């Protein structure tokens, strides 16, 4: 007699991950198109092709679902930051010449400006946080929190260990670097999207140079 194959735990987890992703994608589309208040759990379930009960089982309520959407976008942004750090500021052996570190920091900054701050994901995150602040845990809710700053601080500490920077307080150095580069562009231009505004790069370059005048070893 043939035996019935029982689904493995791994298969069940993959199915659950797919349903979760479908629910988050559906909720994100509806929250952006119709707003949080006008988007029903029934509509989310229908678009995700799951039952309404499944939405509640995964996320509990609509506000928790909104937070999960915002958090998922924030996690994608953090992944972009970490990947960019790995690709631009990890290989200390090539940062030997006087201009090498400056070039690497400018490259990192320009990559963040285009790959993250100029991305549709970042625009979506900003739009949701502004429009739905009353439905998030608190005003100014930031799903990324301090993670990007801390990731940059870790890389600055590594560069200091390699003798390239002098940073007694890596987290403070990271905060100041961000303020001098992306912060200046955002404050002055309202955007740090270097692909759309040629004025971003000169601001970033000058910010990197100012940072290095203070922190170069």
From TrEMBL:
It comes from the Bacteria. Residues 40-59 bind DNA. Keywords: DNA-binding, Transcription, Transcription regulation. One of its GO terms (molecular function) is DNA-binding transcription factor activity. Residues 17-77 form the HTH tetR-type domain. GO terms for biological process: negative regulation of DNA-templated transcription. Pfam families: TetR_C_7 (PF14246), TetR_N (PF00440). This is TetR family transcriptional regulator. It comes from Streptomyces venezuelae. The lineage of its organism: Bacteria, Bacillati, Actinomycetota, Actinomycetes, Kitasatosporales.
